[in-house]
């Protein structure tokens, strides 16, 4: 019987969905005794190394896991499920299982953004010449460096390697009964499903291992730029959850451009799960669902939204982010729900990342009041501690604040000047742009980086829905202010806009909504334009 090990933190729903999709049965390891019944085992560890080890130890599963692997029965570890095989991690004071004698180390952010998020190639070591296996989805800040001179025994375990920046790391291990991937096959589309299927069919095939020699990094790594489709979701006036889309965040139909019967109604562009499935089939690298009116309700009472996430997770085998209302909330009956609990509900339903908006602004305001010293209580910190920083996206909704040409106020150092002589700074807003704060986008971006966010989703209220292109000044400003990946958002009107965003600002991903919903531009068309401009994208 195949068993899955769920240590209680992280999205294991995706792997369960993939296995069901492939037509296999499985059971969950619930007690130490269950290991005895397992004839094969997958450990889909998502999250942070420290929480994983502590959860396993607390539930008495760590030693049975070690004994299971030593018994020679097939084991497949994913992400943290691979990392626990190693002796230690810079992420944690707890020791790993020590099966592979090598530490897990943090990527250097000298030459690149960390975490490493996105689709990268895995290169097989036992093929001649080293062949690219396929593109898989990675999301991690720590890795096992591939270094046969320093860690010769560990290098014997390496099955594939991957290059990020100028670092080469072990992206899959295979030896005896043990297989493990740093990437997430359950989130890697058709290539990932094929890999899981191959292991399920022959979990104990032992590949021969050839000699391991040091490899020189290529001038360019294989990480691709990501194209993300975003769905803003809210209840329409009939109470159904629909995908909507605003112009500069106004999602209601204008009385002038529609019939008198729909004027003023919430714009309805389709059903969230059906649209998400369409984007998955069209080759979207990621999807994003934003519950744009969640600030009005307690999201844990927002069962329709959780149901949407569950249904989408059954159909999507690429990562997806859920945003809106990720903050400490109080239920109508007075029950306090910490942000971590809200996020956990979404992760359990199948989301891979949560996106925090308004609460991130408050957290950075509090951080500034404390002179830049984090206190560990913000939603960003608590969720990143439990699930790893790569699971925490911060969605920023800035708006241009125009000032006189002789402005000398607090934000004078961050002014951007347009060709027409106008000057502005980018001011942060909350509650979908309804309120502004005396906080600039640079202060917010650097603050959330310091608090432990893994990625920034950078909207622009000025450009949203205009089709005029991304706000390149804004993207460049934020990109050079932080060391975490930045996702460009708002304003895409044609494929060339994606090319200019990547080429001119170096952002890691670009997101669009309106043009995809209205089928004006396809995801394939965007990728063709990027490929023609020599920008690496996943096929
Ligand atoms: O504050 O944590 O509850 O999160 C609320 C989330 O909802 C935030 O991520 C915020 O950006 C989003 N949101 C709130 N109100 C709106 C609105 O439109 N009225 N949508 C809203 C934000 C921007 C993007 C949009 C891009 C691309 N929408 O999601 O998809 O601008 O659009 P385009 O390609 O058509 O130009 P919290």
TrEMBL record:
Q: Which residues bind L-glutamine?
A: 79
**Domain Glutamine amidotransferase intervals:** 4-189
Question: Which residues of this UniProt protein bind substrate?
Answer: 325, 459
Pathway linked to the protein: Amino-acid biosynthesis; L-histidine biosynthesis; L-histidine from 5-phospho-alpha-D-ribose 1-diphosphate: step 5/9
Q: What EC number(s) are associated with this protein in UniProt?
A: 3.5.1.2
Residue numbers spanned by region PRFAR binding: 357-358, 395-397, 464-465, 490-491, 513-514
List GO BP terms, alphabetically: L-histidine biosynthetic process
Active site annotation, chain numbering: 79 (for gatase activity), 184 (for gatase activity), 186 (for gatase activity), 232, 397
* Domain of life assignment: Eukaryota
Q: Which chain regions cross the lipid bilayer?
A: none
What does the UniProt function comment say about this protein?
Answer: IGPS catalyzes the conversion of PRFAR and glutamine to IGP, AICAR and glutamate. The glutaminase domain produces the ammonia necessary for the cyclase domain to produce IGP and AICAR from PRFAR. The ammonia is channeled to the active site of the cyclase domain.
Protein's name according to its UniProt entry: Imidazole glycerol phosphate synthase hisHF
- Origin organism is Mycena sanguinolenta
């Amino acid at each position: 019987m195949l068993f899955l090990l769920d240590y209680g933190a992280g999205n294991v729903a995706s792997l369960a969905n993939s296995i069901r999709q492939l037509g296999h049965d499985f059971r969950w390891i619930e007690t130490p005794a269950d290991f005895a019944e397992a004839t094969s085992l997958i450990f889909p560890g998502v999250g942070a190394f420290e929480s994983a080890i502590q959860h396993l130890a607390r539930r008495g599963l760590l030693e049975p896991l070690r004994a299971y692997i030593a018994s020679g029965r097939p084991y497949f570890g994913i992400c943290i499920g691979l990392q626990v095989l190693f002796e230690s991690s810079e992420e944690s004071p707890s020791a790993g299982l020590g099966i592979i004698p090598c530490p897990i180390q943090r990527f250097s952010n000298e030459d690149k953004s960390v975490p490493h998020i996105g689709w990268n190639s895995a290169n097989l070591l036992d093929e001649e010449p080293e062949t690219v296996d396929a593109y898989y989805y990675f999301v991690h800040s720590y890795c096992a460096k591939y270094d046969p001179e320093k860690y010769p025994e560990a290098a014997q375990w390496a099955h594939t390697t991957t290059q990020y920046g100028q670092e080469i790391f072990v992206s899959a291990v295979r030896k005896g009964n043990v297989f493990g991937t740093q990437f997430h096959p359950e989130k890697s589309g058709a290539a990932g499903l094929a890999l899981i299927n191959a292991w399920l069919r022959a979990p104990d095939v032992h590949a021969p291992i050839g000699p391991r020699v040091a490899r020189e990094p290529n001038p360019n790594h294989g990480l691709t730029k990501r194209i993300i489709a975003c769905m803003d979701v809210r209840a329409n006036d009939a109470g159904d959850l629909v995908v909507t889309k605003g112009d500069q965040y106004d999602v209601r139909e204008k009385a002038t451009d529609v019939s008198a019967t729909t004027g003023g109604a919430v714009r309805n562009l389709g059903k969230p799960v059906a649209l998400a499935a369409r984007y998955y089939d069209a080759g979207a690298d990621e999807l994003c669902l934003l519950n744009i009116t969640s600030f009005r309700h307690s999201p844990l009472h927002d069962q329709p939204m959780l149901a949407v996430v569950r249904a989408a997770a059954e159909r999507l085998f690429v990562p997806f982010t859920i945003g809106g209302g990720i903050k400490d909330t109080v239920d109508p009956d007075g029950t306090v729900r910490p942000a971590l609990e809200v996020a956990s509900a979404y992760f359990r339903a199948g989301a891979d990342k949560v996106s925090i908006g308004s609460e991130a602004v408050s957290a950075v305001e509090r951080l500034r009041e404390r002179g830049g010293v984090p206190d560990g209580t913000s939603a960003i910190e608590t969720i990143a501690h439990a699930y790893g920083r790569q699971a925490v996206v911060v969605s920023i909704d800035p708006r241009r604040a125009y000032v006189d040409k002789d402005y000398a106020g607090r934000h004078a150092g961050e002014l951007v000047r347009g060709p027409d002589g106008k000057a502005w700074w980018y001011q942060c807003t909350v509650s979908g742009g309804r309120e502004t704060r005396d906080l600039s986008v640079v202060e917010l971006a650097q603050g959330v980086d310091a608090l432990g966010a893994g990625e920034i989703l950078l909207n622009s209220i000025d450009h949203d829905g205009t089709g005029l292109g991304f706000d390149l000044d804004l993207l460049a400003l934020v990109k050079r202010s932080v060391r975490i990946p930045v996702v460009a958002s708002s304003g895409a009107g044609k494929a060339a806009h994606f090319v200019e965003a990547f080429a001119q600002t170096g952002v890691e991903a670009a997101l669009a909504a309106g043009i995809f919903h209205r089928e004006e531009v396809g995801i394939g068309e965007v990728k063709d334009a990027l490929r023609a401009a020599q920008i690496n994208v996943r096929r």
